[in-house]
Design goal:
Beta-Lactamase, alpha+beta, five-stranded antiparallel sheet, Arc Repressor Mutant, subunit A, extended, six-stranded antiparallel sheet, about 725 residues, single chain, 5 domains
């Protein structure tokens, strides 16, 4: 039994019945009394201690006991008492920091609302109680919020979500409230205003990334694409250009670094042209080595100093392809250019074209390319790490990296948690697990888990599986794969809590089993009187009332058909039994003789012999024929003919509207209920087609009526 299925009242009652006032009890004793795991009992006892309903004390190195205090008698609130529970609830909830706690009923109306933000950020208690949040915040909240509340009160599940209403961001936690019999009587929702937290988190994130960027080992600027305003700069750039961050942030690049009026350097013009190309083409632009003097600060005497740069301008694109920023990266190559200024040459950049300096130019170029490749690889690694870290921290699935521990014989005995993601705690219930061993956290954890992860560490082969972890009181879907170096014995696991799905599957399995047993019993009990009725109907004298005898005989035959139809609908292929060669035209003609429609016409143009059960195929035709007569009129014309991979049954009646063509196959659907229709005929047709792995579709016939098409029908292998 999970902790969400054991109520506080049940736990408190178990404490009272297990020990008298002041008598200590252990988690194991309460687990036995409640029929749950020791872990669940421990969590519930600690929760009651946090609510001041119980006292606790540590005994020995790892044991702990709890007891019901004497002052819980008159004068001390008893959580099992209605009025005192409400008073205790309101007193505690009113102190809930930066949020509110509310109890709501099955209509999602709030019965009790308390909290520090009630009457301030949220409406007053009088405005909220008796209303639904969807009514008060109709413009902000949609059906999704009501679905969240229903999750607790209808499904008995506990969930957390984030919503926005009243201009604020809220984290909402919902859970069911149960009575002593385990029945859900209300829902509990906890609202916490996280607006300021998210704002501070965003500011902290931006500040962190800005600090990281400013310490990048390279000269970088980040510019706005419209006016080239400087929005970020690295320390390396400030050092290379002898500028201060406070002086250049918010300024245009070309206001900070204008052309030197005393020289004919064209650095500014060349940079403007490069940035325009980046804006127009939205692609990186690598500039040639450029002569662009920089202004000196007054402390250095003012004026300009000659500098040569190797610039690269790269666009940063939004999701829609527009440019959000431009990254301007430069490398100061002034020492190299000065070294090449040999023998007083006035144009050192042109020396790259001279034969005697070709080798030097090649070495310079290769060195720059290698440096660029190294920086780009470093950037890619950091970007990859950032993406995977973001994914690691944002996924809903639990993720952890563990180190397997083996004994001297090489058998897995334990594992240590090295790293976990934020969803890990919610998925497992384990807190502060990093650095801890699983055996210490859950000593009774099944050996199965250690064996599976041990195989991954040994073989290096990933595995996917579903298994129950009884010590955690959950089912999991797991993907485990080797991580790091082979000798590290590390395994990474990605897992999801599938307890709700497994419990639902088990309920369905039990329900289906009961359903099949009921079907067998019902069919057996019905067949006996029907068989007897058929035998005696054959002995009735036909001279006195021949028509009545025919009606009685037909009624018993019809009952037998309905039993067969019911079994196919309930059991599928198991009931359809073995198949044999069946001629479509002959079977359809036999079914037509059972239909009371003397004015209707059947046209047969089929030459197919197929593999099917003749009895059920005749039922299929009879249901389709009766449906055509019922909806197409007593004088309807029905056609049975072949398709390339099957056959069809068509009529010239009123047809079936396109929006009803899927609905007609549902059990219980009928448009002739007043005439005795039971809604099983077409459901049987569709189910039999599914059993035989045929496709069954409804369309319009050539004469505007209904046409039922059956494809991928198994043809008799002996048919020519």
């Amino acid at each position: 039994m999970g902790s969400d299925r054991v109520t506080d009242t049940e736990t408190l009652t178990a404490v009272k019945s297990t020990g008298a006032v002041h008598d200590p009890v252990t988690a194991s004793e309460i687990a036995d009394a409640l029929g749950c795991t020791r872990h669940t009992a421990y969590d519930k006892l600690e929760k009651l201690h946090d609510q001041a309903a119980l006292r606790t004390k540590k005994v020995g190195a790892r044991a702990r006991v709890w007891w019901y205090p004497a002052d819980s008698s008159p004068g001390h609130p008893d959580p099992t008492n209605g009025e005192e529970s409400e008073h205790l609830y309101r007193t505690l909830a009113a102190q809930f920091p930066n949020g509110a706690v509310a109890v709501y009923d099955h209509n999602l109306q709030y019965e009790l609302v308390e909290g520090a933000v009630v009457g301030t950020t949220l409406p007053s208690r009088e405005q909220l109680e008796g209303q639904t949040f969807a009514e008060i915040f109709a413009d902000d909240l949609g059906d999704g919020f009501n679905s969240l509340l229903r999750t607790a009160i209808e499904d008995g599940a506990t969930k957390t979500s984030e919503v926005t209403f009243g201009g604020r961001d809220w984290r909402v936690w919902v859970t069911p409230l149960c009575d002593s019999d385990g029945e859900i009587v209300a829902g509990l929702s906890v609202f916490q205003d996280v607006t300021e937290h998210k704002r501070l988190q965003a500011e902290t994130t931006e500040s962190t990334f800005r600090q990281l960027f400013e310490n990048v080992p390279g000269a970088y600027l980040i510019l706005k694409p419209d006016d080239y305003e400087i929005v970020a700069v690295t320390d390396a750039y400030l050092e290379a250009t002898m500028t201060e961050r406070t002086e250049i942030l918010g300024e245009s690049l070309f206001d900070v670094f204008p052309d030197d009026p005393q020289t004919d350097a064209e650095g500014v013009h060349a940079l403007q042209a490069s940035l325009k190309r980046v804006t127009a083409e939205r692609q990186e632009d690598v500039m040639p080595v450029t002569h662009s003097p920089i202004p000196l600060p007054e402390s250095e005497g003012g004026g300009f100093e000659d500098r040569w740069w190797s610039p690269i301008n790269t666009p940063i694109l939004n999701a829609d392809g527009t440019i959000e920023y431009i990254v301007h990266r430069v490398k100061d190559v002034t020492p190299i250019i000065r070294q090449l200024h040999i023998d007083g040459a006035e144009e050192p950049l042109q020396r790259f074209d001279y034969g005697e300096l070709q080798l030097t130019a090649d070495i310079l170029q290769r060195g720059q390319e290698l440096q660029q490749a190294k920086e780009e690889a470093y950037d890619r690694v950091r970007e990859s790490e950032r993406k995977y870290r973001t994914l690691f921290e944002s996924i809903n699935e639990g993720f952890c990296i563990i180190e397997m521990l083996f004994d001297q014989d090489g058998d897995p005995v334990d594992y240590r948690f090295l790293e976990t993601n934020p969803a890990f705690e919610e998925q497992t219930g384990l807190t502060d697990a990093e650095g801890e061993r699983m055996r210490d956290l859950r000593p009774d954890h099944e050996q199965y888990w250690f064996d599976r992860y041990g195989d991954v560490a040994k073989t290096g082969e990933p595995v996917s599986f579903e298994a129950e972890a009884e010590a955690l009181d959950r089912w999991y879907s797991v993907y485990a794969f080797p991580f790091g170096e082979p000798k590290s014995q590390q395994v990474a696991t990605l897992f999801d809590d599938i307890t709700d799905r497994k419990e639902h599957e088990q309920r369905l399995e039990r329900q289906n089993e009961r359903f099949e047993n009921f079907a067998s019993m019902l069919a057996h009990e019905l067949r006996n009187p029907v068989t007897i009725g058929q035998l005696y109907s054959q002995q009735l004298p036909t001279e006195a009332a021949p028509q009545a005898v025919d009606y009685v005989t037909e009624a018993f035959d019809r009952l037998e058909d309905i039993i067969d139809v019911m079994l196919v609908l309930m059991r599928g292929r198991e009931t359809a039994g073995e198949t044999s060669s069946v001629e479509l035209a002959e079977t359809a003609q036999a079914a037509w003789r059972d239909v009371d429609a003397p004015e209707a016409t059947l046209e047969l143009t089929s030459d197919w012999t197929i593999q099917a059960n003749e009895t059920y195929l005749r039922h299929l035709f009879r249901n389709l024929f009766e449906n055509a007569v019922e909806h197409g009129g007593r004088d309807v014309t029905i056609t049975v003919s072949d398709l390339p991979t099957g056959f069809y049954v068509a009529d010239d009646g009123v047809g079936i509207p396109p929006d009803k063509r899927d609905t007609v196959f549902e059990q219980g659907y009928t448009s002739a209920a007043e005439q005795g229709g039971h809604g099983l005929g077409l459901a049987f047709v569709n189910e039999l087609a599914t059993v035989y792995e045929w496709t069954c579709t409804v369309t319009e016939s050539a004469n505007g009526g209904a046409r039922f098409e059956f494809r991928y029908v198994d043809q008799d292998p002996h048919q020519d």
